[in-house]
Design brief:
Order of helices and strands: HHHHHHHHHHHHHHHHH
Number of helices: 17
Number of domains: 1
Strand content: under 5%
Largest sheet: none
Shape: globular
């Protein structure tokens, strides 16, 4: 006689949407990361450069309000009520505003608008490339190594994957943890700087002239976040020891930076020979970068960084300069884009393979 009831009952509940699992994993990861005092200190330190750049925006707008960027005739009619802050703003305009609206008459509205836009763009680009990218690498090195390696060491995947959580939701949840950190360190301070610049400008109508800068800041943050976050999680998934993953992360950034600097130095030595310099006289952009770190971050060095694709930091910087409209040469941008895309795709493959390994065991 056949048995029709052996104790099994069909589940009649309703599954939560996938984003609920992603949110739960992300919130749990952020709570665990926030317990670290070093992380809290690093986040506080990451916001400290905002004060310096906010003062730079204020100094520039003070120079505009004092009429230091207008024509000599208009400046004479406005009187001589000038202070030292305006002088600093004039220095910023002369340094960061080079090449603004060359066809416009210096001092007219078109030239002032173009100068403001270029100065704001270069300040935001410098902010995101120089202090924030370095601080972000440090913070990710503190948080990312333990996100997956800790689960592997504690065999937490036995808990994760006994629930209706798939490999995709697990990876997206871990990515959301680092994505939130990237937002706090890079995107939110950049948006706050733009908003502060609008407030200290002579008219809030400046926001209509520079409305695309926040959009570009979002895109630049994404260009920084995608390859770095994926690479950090890939290192974390390859080992159960977070110390090894952390060492691999910092060693990769340091080794790539050293290789980039060494090859650029070799190019500078080669370019110092008379034959190479004479061949490059017609097109100075073929020379390697010659300025300092801050000048390259601001896009003031017109040299071609042909080894940027070797270093994640410099490759991201080139892509960010392209997003902000400072770098427009395809031969400079394409190698960096291809390099970052290759790193991202490789990291995705490693994550999919390693995270799915417990289920295959």
């Amino acid at each position: 006689m056949p048995l029709h009831d052996v104790g099994y009952r069909a589940w009649r509940g309703r599954l939560q949407p996938p984003w609920a699992a992603v949110g739960a994993i992300a919130v749990t990861g952020l709570k665990l990361a926030w317990k670290s005092r070093w992380l809290r200190r690093a986040l506080l330190l990451a916001w400290s450069p905002t004060l310096f750049f906010a003062a730079s925006f204020f100094a520039f707008e003070q120079a505009v309000d004092e009429g230091r960027l207008t024509s000599l005739t208009e400046r004479a009619t406005r009187g001589g009520d000038l202070d030292g802050v305006g002088i600093l703003g004039t220095i910023l305009a002369n340094t960061l505003g080079r090449g603004a609206a060359p066809a416009a008459i210096p001092g007219d509205a078109a030239h002032l608008s173009a100068t403001r836009r270029l100065v704001w763009t270069r300040l935001l680009l410098t902010f995101m490339r120089a202090p924030q990218a370095v601080l972000l690498a440090v913070v990710i090195g503190l948080v990312a190594p333990a996100l997956i390696s800790g689960d592997l060491r504690a065999k937490a995947w036995l808990v994760y994957f006994t629930r209706p959580v798939g490999r995709t939701e697990y990876i997206l949840g871990k990515l959301a943890v680092l994505g939130a950190i990237v937002t706090v360190i890079t995107l939110l301070p950049a948006l706050a700087l733009w908003f502060a610049a609008v407030l200290v400008s002579p008219s809030v109508l400046v926001a209509a002239e520079t409305w695309d800068l926040p959009v570009r800041a979002v895109a630049a943050s994404a260009a920084l976040a995608i390859p770095t976050v994926l690479l950090a999680l890939a290192f974390s998934s390859l080992t159960a020891e977070s110390r090894i993953a952390s060492f691999a992360w910092f060693a990769t950034w340091a080794a790539c930076w050293i290789a980039h600097s060494a090859l650029n130095t070799a190019d500078l030595v080669a370019a110092s020979e008379d034959a190479v310099v004479a061949a490059a006289d017609a097109d100075p952009a073929v020379l390697p970068p010659r300025g300092g770190w801050i000048m390259r971050a601001a896009g003031l060095d017109g040299g071609l960084d042909r080894w940027a694709w070797l270093s994640p930091y410099h490759a991201v910087g080139v892509v960010q300069a392209w997003i902000f409209g400072i770098e427009t040469r395809p031969r400079a941008v394409l190698p960096a884009v291809v390099s970052l895309a290759a790193v991202s795709l490789t990291a995705v493959g490693v994550l999919a393979w390693r995270v799915g390994a417990p289920a295959r065991a």
